Amino acid sequence: MTADPVLELSGIRAGYGPIEVLHGCDLTVGPSQVVALLGPNGAGKTTTLAVASGQIAPTAGTIALCGRNVTGVRSDALARAGVCLVPEGRGVFPNLTVTENLRMATFSGTSLSEIEERAYTQFPALRDRRSQTAGTLSGGEQQMLAMSRALATDPALVMLDELSMGLAPLIVEELYGRVAQLAADGVSILIVEQFAPAVLGVADSAAIMVHGRIVEQGDPGDIADHLTAAYLAID
User: What angle do CA 31, 65, 210 make, to 5 degrees?
Assistant: First the structure.
């Protein structure tokens, strides 16, 4: 028996006021899969994450989480159901310390000590930064902190927007190594990434988005051959 996809978007149309950005988007993320969502700027990738996390309600189509229709469900309810988004720009509280940032995740019912243990096991570099304000951390450490907060909720699906933005190659490699381990531990992951080579090495599936539609989804090795045309917006 085949398990339901953790996330399935079918015929999604959505946008901002009268401006439609997604024009019938179809996307699937399977259990314990890493799915890379690729495409040029303005293709609708971040909007797709906003729809999947409940921040934007679609005007048409359906959103299913583990086989259950959750179309129109609010973001806070989806978060409690195991959907977690790490936005572009990391989304940490810069004036709070690392510990205080982690304490913000205790709303899920998990104790701070458990959240800290999980965070420092996943990202040992944060342990020595516990009393440091997040805004003074390096870009890589801020991304680690953002991911640690996301994992505090024990999510079924983690969505990452531009994980590698502004980070050194060695840090990107470390973060993607952690992404691969999370998938091996049973977490499904959807990643929007502008720098395709960084994610294709760990992705189980890749999708190309152009002009608000998924034009292809499949094996990363096959998808890579079509990326140049997509980034140049060649139909």
Answer: 85
Q: What's the whole-number mean pLDDT along residues 37-43?
A: 90
Q: Are 208 and 43 in contact (CB under 8 A)?
A: no
Q: What is the pLDDT of residue 150?
A: 86
The pLDDT, as a whole number, for residue 100 is 96
Give the pTM.
Answer: 0.90
**Cross-strand pairs, 214:** 209
